[in-house]
Amino acid sequence: MIINYFFPQFMHKDTGGKILLSLLALVTIMVIIFNFLIPLLLPEASSWHMPTYMVTLLGKYLCLALLAIALDLVWGYCGILSLGHAAFFALGGYAMGMYLMRQIGDRGVYGDPVLPDFMVFLNWSELPWYWYGFESFAFTALMILLVPGLLAYVFGWMTFRSRVTGVYLSIMTQALTYALMLAFFRNEMGLGGNNGLTDFKDILGFSLQSDSTRIVIFSLSAAALAMGYIASRFIVESKLGKTVVAIRDAELRTRFIGYKVENFKLWIFVFSAMLAGVAGALYVPQVGIINPGEFSPLNSIELAIWVAIGGRGTLFGAVIGALIVNYAKTYFTGALPELWLFALGTLFIVSTLYLPKGVVGLFERFQNRTENNKLEEKTA
Amino acid sequence: MKFISQKNNLGLHLIYIILCLIFATNVSAENNADLEKLIPQLQVKNFKKKIASVKQLAEINKPQSITILEALLDSRLYYQKADKSVVIIQKKDHKYEIFSPLDNTKIGLVEKKTIKKITTNNKLRKTIRTLLAQKKISHTELNIRQAALKEILTSSDASLLPVLQQAKKNESDESQKDLLTLAIALIEVDSKDNSIRLSAIKILGNSVFPRAKGKLEQVLLTNDQGSFIEQDKDIITASQKALKRINSKLSLFSNLETLFFGLSLGSVLLLAAIGLSITFGVMGVINMAHGELIMLGAYTTYLVQQAMPNDIGLSLIVAIPAAFIVSGLFGIAIERGVIRHLYGRPLETLLATFGISLLLQQMVRTLISAQNVPVITPSWLSGSLVFNPAFAITYNRIYIFFFALMVFALLMLILKKTSLGLQVRAVAKNRSMATAMGIKTQWVDSLTFGLGSGVAGVAGVALSQLTNVGPNLGQAYIIDSFMVVVFGGVENLWGTLVAAMTLGITNKFLEPWVGAVMSKIIVLIFLIIFIQKRPNGLFPQKGRSSGGH
Amino acid sequence: MNSFSQMQDKVRDVLRRDRTFNHTIVEENIFLQGTHSVHHNTLDASHGPVLYLEDVSVSFDGFQALNKLSLYIDDGELRCIIGPNGAGKTTMMDVITGKTRPDTGLVYFGQTMDLTQMAEHDIAIAGIGRKFQKPTIFPEHSVWENLELAMKTDKGVWHTLFTVLTSEQKDRIEEVMLIIGLQELCYARADLLSHGQKQWLEIGMLLMQDPRVLLVDEPVAGMTHQEMDRTAELLTSLAGKHSVVVVEHDMDFVRSIASQVTVLHEGSVLAEGTMDEVQNNQKVIEVYLGE
C-alpha cells in the first residue's frame, strides 16, 4: 500500500485512522487553497469557496472530535468512564479565554487598560493574582496543558490510589465537574461568573473576526486533531497501551504480574485531560465565548455518547461519533428543537442496547459478512 | 391561586353578612341612643370638643364604638353633604360604599362629591389610638387583647404606660401578662427613675423580642468619639449584661434554627436518596433517571390537585399512593425495557438510564408544559410553629421531616419483615445462590426496582411542597442523592439515613459562613476526598475476598 | 494486659533466630539499583526458608479466616497445601501476595522483605508469582501479548511506552509458548481459548515472570488426565530452581507431585509431612471424614 508511505509504522494496520487523517488533510488543504490562497493571489477570480461560518462550524466539530478521542483513551482503552471530561475541556477553554480577555486591553466597554469589563462592573480595583501571566501567549499555552493536567493528576492520584473504580469513579468525576460548575458560576471566582468570558477581539494581534484568522484557527484545529490522533494511536499500539487494556479487562491480574496499576491509570488520565484542554482552548476562539455551562454534567455525559455511538476503543470511532452527533445536534436544534432531547435520549438507549460497538462495529460486522460471503462463493 | 383568593373573599363576605344580620337583630333591638347622640358631635370643627366626644364614645362599652373610632383613625369616617349624617365609607372602584355607623348596615353607593371627610389632627389621632389600645387591651376576648398588644409592642408609645399598667393588673392570661410586662419595660427604660430603668433593663434582658434588643442597643449608643451617650454607669453595665444575655439566647435559637434547617434538608435528601439506595445498593444498578422519577411524583401531585380542586387538603394524601404507583410503574417499565438487558454492564446502564432521564424530561415538557407548574400548599401544611419571636419553624418542613422518617421506617420494615424483603436481601447478597434456591430473581429485580422508583415518586410529592415543580426538578437532586448513597455506604439504609442528615446539617451550618453555593461546593469536595479515603462509605460491608477478580 | 501481650510479641520478634534487621544489612548493591531497577530489594534466602508466615491472623466481620497460621517454605521446595473449603487456603495466598493485609503476624520473603508492607506489584516484581483459582488472563489480547505483558522486565510507565521487544525477549516468549503448547494459537485472542488452554496460558504467564516463588491455586481444575500429567511434570521440573506452592483439591494429583504436604484447617496448620504421613494422621481423618 503506497499510502503507508505517509504514515508512521504503528499506523499501518489502522485503516480507519488512515482514511480519517487523509480526509482531514484533504479538507484542510482545500479550505486553505480555496478560501485563503486563491482570494489572496487572484482577488478578481470568484471561485468556489466554503462560507466562513461553515469553516468555523467545522473547526468547532474538529475540537469536539479531539475531546472525544481524549475520552476514548480513558474509557475505551482503560475502562474509566469519566463523566467529568468536559471539565478539562472547559479549563483549557478558560485559560484561552483569559488570554483573549487580556488581549482586549482598553477596547472594552469601560475602557480600563488592565481590568476586563466584568471586573470593572463589579467594582474590582485590581487584577486577581491568577490572572497574571495570561497576557503572554506562551504562558497561556503552558497553562492550557498544565491546569487540566494538574487537576487530573490530583484527582487521579487520590482516586486511583484508593482504588475507586467503575460507577463510583464515574459519579465522583461527575461530582467534580458539578462542583466546578457551581464554583465558576460565582462572581467571586473572578472569571466572569454567569456570563463567562466573551467579547474577544484578537489573538496574537490578528482580529478574530477576519476570515483569514478563522481559516488559520481551523487549520490549527485540524492539525491538533491529527496530532492528537497520531499520538493516541502511538500510545495504544505501544506496550503501555496493551497494559492499559489489560488493566481494563483484569486489573488484579495486571497488578499481580508487577504493574503499578495506579501509575498507568494516572498517566493516561492526565494525558487525556491535557488533550481535552487543548481541544477546549481551540474551541473558545471559534465560538467566541466560554461560560460555566461548559462544566455542566450534561456536556460530559453527552460526550460519552459520542464515543459510544462511534465505537469505543477504536479512536477513529470517537471522531466519527463526535461528528455525527454534533451534526445531528446542529440540525435538530435548528429545525426541530423540541425533538432534539428525544433524539438524544433515544440515541443513549439505542447505542447501549443495540450498538455495543457503535457505528464502527456495525461497519465491521457488515464487512465481515461480505467477506464470509465471498469465502463461501469461493469454496462453493 | 386566583381562584382561591376569590373564594376567600366570598367567605369573608359571607361572614360579614352574617355579622350584619346578628347586629341588625341584636343591636338595633338594644338602645342605641347613646351612640346616636354622640356620633353627630364628631362633626364639630373644634378639635377640643371632638376629643371630648371621642372620649365619651370610647366609654360606651359596645363593639360598634371601636368600629367608629377605627374608621375615624383611618380617615374613613365621612358625613353626607346632603343631610349631614355620619357614615363609614369603603372605596369601591371609583365610587364609595357607605355604611351606617350605628350598625354597619349598608346604606348605598355614592359619588365622591356627595360626602365629606371628618377631619382629624395629630392630637386627636393620638387620643384615639390610646383610647382604642385601652379598650382593646382590656377587651373580654383574648385574641383581641393579643392582637392589640402585638401592635403596641411594635411601636411602644410612652403615653400608653398607665393603660398597660392597668391592663396588667386585670390580666388573667399568663403569657399575655408576660408580654405586658415586656411592653411596660420597653417604655420604662426611658423613665427618669434609675431604679425603674434598671429593673426594666433586667426584664428586657430576659426577652428575645427583637425590639428588646433594639431598645438596649439604643441605650448603648455611642457618640462620634466612641463614648456612651448615656451617662449613668450602672445603666450601661446593666444594659451590656442584658444585651449579652439576649445575644447568647439569640445565637442559641439561631443555632437551633440552623439545626432544624439542616435536619429538614437532610430529610429531603433522605427522601430523594432512599429509593436510589435500594436500586443502587441492592441491585448494583445506577439509575440516572432516578431524579426524573422524583419529578414524575411531583407532577402526579400537580395532576391530582387539578383533578380535585375542591379538596386541596385531601389531594396531597391521595397524591402519595398515586405518585408511588406512577413512578413505580415507570420504574418497572425502565427495568424491564432497558436495565434488564444491561445487567453486568454498569457503565452502559448509567448511560442508558441517562437517556431515559432526557426522554422523561422532554415528555413532561411536551405533554404538560416547559414552565413550572403551580402546586398548591394545603392549609394544614402552611403557617409555622412559633416557639418565641426568635424561633419559628414552618409546618411543611416539620411534616416532611416526620414523613421522611416514616417512609424510612416503612422501607426498613418491608426489607426486614416481609418475604419480598427477604428475597431482595438474598438476591443482593448472592444472586446465583438465590436463583438456585428457587427465588425468581428477575421478578425480585423488577419489584425492587419498582419499590425504589415508587419511593422516588413519594419523595416527589414531598418536594412539590418545598420547591418549584418543573421539568428540571429531578436534575437538581440526582448528584446529591448519589453522594448520600455513596457516603452512607452501599447496601445500607441506616447509612443512608445518617449520611443524609449529616450532609444536610453540615451544609446548613456552613451556609452562614461561606454562602449557599460555596457550602455546597465544600460539601462536594469533602465527599470526593472522603470517598477516596473510604471507598465503601461510612458503614462498609466487609467481606471475605474470593480469588480471581 | 493488652500492652503486656504486645511487649511479648515484641520480645519474641527480637529474639527470633532467623530475623535480620535492616540496619545490620550492608547495602552493597546500592550502585546496582540503577541498572537493576526491577529488584528494589534483593532477596536473601541464604538461611534456608524463602517464605515465612508466622502467627498470621485475618478476620472478616467476625469470621476468622486465618488463625495464627505459621508456615515456612524452603528455597526450591515443592509444597502442596490441602484442606477443606474455608480452611483459609485462598486467604493465605491473598496475604502473601499483598491482596489482604493480616491483622497480626509476620510475612517475610527471604530474610529482609516484609511483605505486609509491600504493594501487590512490588511483591510480584520481587519474585512471587500467582495463578488464580479461576483462570484470569487478558481476554482481548492474543496469547503472545498475554505472555509479553507478563514478561520480566522494567514495568514502569515510561519504559512501557517506548519499549520494543528485543530478539532475546522474543525467543523467551517462543520458548514458553512451546512449554505450554500454545504455539499454534500464538495470535488467537485469549478469550477464545478452552478452559484448559486458559489454565496453561496463565501458567505460561507465571513462567514469563520468572518468579522465585510460584503460588498455584488449583492448577488442574478443568484439565484432562493427559494435561494433568503434563502439569505435574512441569511443576516438578520447576521445583529446585523455584519454590512452588500448590493448592489443590485433587488428591491423586497431589500424590503425584508432592513430597511435602501441609493440611490447613480453620485457618491454621493441622498437619504437615509426606502424603502418607498426612493421610494416616488421626486428626486429618477426622476433619475430612468426621463431618
Walk me through what this model shows.
- The complex is a heterotrimer of chains A (380), B (549) and C (291).
- With 380 residues, chain A is an all-alpha fold.
- Helix content of chain A is 70%, strand content 2%.
- In chain A, strands 1-4 form a two-stranded antiparallel sheet.
- In chain A, a hairpin with a 2-residue loop joins strand 2 and strand 3.
- The longest helix of chain A is centred in the first third of the chain and has 27 residues.
- The two termini of chain A are 30 Å apart.
- In chain B, 67% of the residues lie in helices and 6% in strands.
- In chain B, the strands form 2 sheets. Chain B has a 5-stranded antiparallel β-sheet.
- In chain B, helix 9 packs parallel to helix 11, helix 11 packs parallel to helix 15 and helix 13 runs antiparallel to helix 18.
- By secondary structure, chain C is an alpha/beta fold.
- Chain C has one domain: P-loop containing nucleotide triphosphate hydrolases (Rossmann fold, 3-Layer(aba) Sandwich), CATH 3.40.50.
- Chain C has 12 helices and 10 strands.
- In chain C, a hairpin with a 2-residue loop joins strand 9 and strand 10.
- In chain C, helix 5 runs parallel beside helix 8 and helix 7 packs antiparallel against helix 8.
- The longest helix of chain C is centred in the last third of the chain and has 15 residues.
- Chains in contact: A-B, A-C, B-C.
- Chains A and C meet through helix 8, helix 9 and helix 10 of A and helix 4, helix 5 and helix 6 of C.
Write a compact overview of the structure shown.
The complex is a heterotrimer of chains A (380), B (549) and C (291). Chain B has 549 residues and is α+β, with helices and mostly antiparallel strands.
Order of helices and strands of chain B: HHHHEEEEEHHHHHHHHHHEEHHHHHHH
For the residues shown, what is the average pLDDT of chain A? 89
Spatially, the strands of the biggest sheet of chain A line up as 1-4
Strand order of the largest sheet of chain B: 4-3-2-1-5
* Number of structurally distinct domains of chain A: 1
- Specify the helix fraction band of chain B: 55-70%
Please state the overall shape of chain A, judged from the principal axes of the Cα atoms.
Answer: globular
Strand segment count of chain B: 7
Number of strands of chain A: 4
Average predicted local confidence, pLDDT of chain B: 81
Oligomer state of the chains in this structure: heterotrimer
Relative helix content of chain A? over 70%
The main sheet of chain B comes to: 5 strands, antiparallel
Distance N to C terminus of chain A: 30 Å
What proportion strand of chain A? under 5%
> Termini separation of chain B (Å)?
60 Å
